[in-house]
Design a protein that fits this description.
six-stranded antiparallel beta sheet, 12 strands, rod-shaped
């Protein structure tokens, strides 16, 4: 005689973290039971899949706790839970970097504070070219004959934050005036002064 035991439910997998006001986010446990009872506390509703091993959720303004109880011929197993949190749309820090720069300066770095799960899109308007680091929180720029504006937009799965910008000015090479002073001078003259 085979003896069955209560179901042992796998952990819940799915969209965690998630985003506010998103629909159709999937969650599941491993199939094997006869039926499944799902509940959600917090800011979400079950859109489909109740009674099966996989559901879709519609989230509102806050996350919550998803619970699943698996049933087999012996009854209900232990309930498994998953606390779903939300990512916020990122807020980028100010850009750190060097200004002023020199004409034809190579490899000047600019950065924002890194955040987990974020990507970064950089642009340089004016006389600079990005030579490394695009999609990260730190880029290297080579400058030509003029300065410009460095802009970073930080994004994650929930959206894009407000772009932040940093104005870079260019130091011009010095233009030296003509040397002034007496000419001609006398032989063996001393303390003759010249200046620019």
């Amino acid at each position: 005689v085979a003896v069955s035991t209560l179901a042992v439910t796998s952990p819940i997998t799915g969209g965690n973290p998630s985003c506010a006001n998103t629909n159709g986010i999937s969650y599941s446990v491993t199939a094997g039971g006869l039926s499944y009872s799902w509940t959600v506390t917090g800011g979400g509703t079950i859109a489909s899949g109740q009674g099966t091993n996989a559901i879709t959720m519609n989230w509102g303004a806050t996350g919550g706790i998803i619970s699943c109880t698996e049933f087999n011929q012996c009854g209900a197993g232990s309930t498994v839970k998953d606390t779903v949190t939300f990512l916020n749309i990122p807020i980028s820090t100010t850009i750190n970097g060097i200004t002023p720069v020199c004409p034809n300066q190579i490899g000047t770095t600019y950065s924002v504070t890194p955040h987990a799960s974020s990507t970064y899109s950089w642009t340089v308007a004016g006389g600079g070219t990005i030579i490394g680091g695009q999609n990260t929180n730190l880029i290297a720029v080579s400058w030509g004959a003029s300065g410009g504006v460095v802009t970073c937009t930080e994004s994650n799965m929930c959206g894009s934050g407000t772009p932040v910008s940093f104005t870079v000015v260019l130091n011009s090479l010095p233009v030296t005036s003509a040397i002034s002073g007496p000419s001609p001078v006398c032989a063996n003259a001393t303390n003759t002064t010249y200046s620019v």
